[in-house]
Write a structure and sequence with these properties.
Strands 2-1-4-5-6-7 form a 6-stranded antiparallel β-sheet, sandwiched between helices. Helices cover 54% and strands 10% of the residues. Helix 7 packs antiparallel against helix 12 and helix 8 runs antiparallel to helix 12. The chain has a domain of 292 residues: P-loop containing nucleotide triphosphate hydrolases (Rossmann fold, 3-Layer(aba) Sandwich), CATH 3.40.50.300. By secondary structure, it is of the alpha/beta class. It is elongated, with a radius of gyration of 40 Å.
Length: 640
Amino acid sequence: MSNLRLNELIVVQGDKYVYHEKFDHKVNIIRGDNSTGKSSIANFIFFILGGEFTEFLPEAKRCDYVLAELLINDTPITVRRNIDKNDKYHVMTKRPMYINIAPLEQAIQSQIEGWKIYQYSQTDRQESFSQKLFQLFNFPDISSENQETITMNQILRLIYIDQLSNLSDLMRNEDFDSPSVRDAVGNLLLGTYSDEKLKFERQLKEVKKEYDKISSQTTAMKEVFKESSFEYNTAIIEDEIQKLEQQLKKVNTSITNPEDILKNAKSSVTKKELDSNRHKLIQIKTKYQDLNEELKNTNLAYIDGKEFIKVIEDKITDIDISIKTRKAFGALELKHCPACFEKLEKANEHQCSLCKQDISDEVNLSRFSRMKLELEMQLKESKNLLQERVIRIKKLKQSIRETSRTLNSAQKDYDLLTKKTGNTASNVLEQIFEKKGSLKFEIQYLQKQLDLISSYEEYRIRAEQLKSQQERLKNQIEDLNFSQRKKSIEAYNKINYYALKLVHSDGDYEEKFEEGKKTSISFRENKYYLDNRNRFSASSMVVLKNCIRFAIFFASVELDFFRFPKFILCDNIEDKGMVDERSKNFQNKVVEIANSDALKNKNYQIIFTTSKISEKLDIPEYTVGQSYTPNNKSLKLDSI
């Protein structure tokens, strides 16, 4: 549950307060004739709360800074933001905020003590003012599904109803908009945002990525095991190693006592014949190992090739979609420079809106076609290479089987020859050293088998752990989804309840309003609907938009799980040719709902401006400051 209240607002020019008013914790109406500065006050409130505003009127730009006392979740704070008058190049954007965790009077008296400056954007050394305010609101760590940063300005897009935004848009317009950011803001303020769920989803993505990588490794190793003559029972291999080590120990002992061996020396086959057979056996063993290693690497290359082909196919699909989209919508026009954000001069239909070079849809489409053609050629080459690897794998498996048979035969021939070998004084010791080398080679070979099996087991166990972790994360996400869906249903039902209450009370100005059965909103699309319709007369759109936005506010006041800060600022009560009675009727209905039994004991704040205040509401209980006129404007500026 989050709560925001504006207690006091001061606008300063030089050393003079040109606007200074206190606000009530319930309903606050700023009223006066048109062009008397009501919107400037609303914009100052939006600005001091952290909103990005660069379109102040000339009178407002003459002011130096804005100062306000806020109450956030019962914590009084004082905030200040300076107004840079030299906004020719939009340098007013991203202005910092001075924050003092103290009431206004104490903060003003302290001058320096307690004040801290926070920039608009986070740095390595300091958090942004949005992060500081979010801490006071007890908001969770907020980011979109694409890890985009959420700022106070984004939050205020749903809290401030301004005059300049498109009437058919749910939230305040932004030059650089993101559906995922709007979605995150909507879910946050409706209380259906879960930072824990987002964290689990990111973990699941990383776990799945690691699982896929390890699965590829285990698949390749399985293929090697399948086609080799390895023994995969570690107990048998360890037992064989133990026997060979015992033999090696005896050989080492015999080397230390060569006299006992030489006593039984006899004639034997020539050393040359023995060396030839030993050399042949080593060559075959080396070839066998090399073939198994090549098979393993080729299997891995085959798996990587399949994944690469999938990536290329996906890119070709994306290009097909881009071509269809381009044909359907034509060239998209940039309105602002992506480097300096200046508004770009309008280009003609055959020029690029950024660099003004001549272009055409046919040229752009041909670029897509060239990219697609290059990818298709690459795809064809990759598939040919993959087929070559399949053929190579088959040949390697055949070679391994043949080499295995040759190795067994050579080993038998060598063993038979060594038995026939005599024990002459010249070669007996040589045979012993040869036996020692053979035993060491066999032990190393078996150790490599153990290492390979151990690696496979580690991969297999890790894969099982990751699979189990995926299931656990999926279950946690599903539990949170269920909780979110439950809250979401309750939230949207309550919003619909208040929206219809306001819509049905509009009178007979719009027939569809009287018959309205269901309202709906989409943060991602930035749209709102009445019975799936988003187009009415201009004045009816003003009413409907206000009904929806106030409905979100009223639902947040009634339902505690909303994070919407029980605060709404509206500078659009009447517009687009709305008749006086229709505006007054809406004002009365808003205040009536605010004073209803369901909300009257709740903590909230409503601030709205109007040039057509209802007579019932034009009383000190609801109004702020004077009723402004052309001779008595809201900002008491020094004359130029």
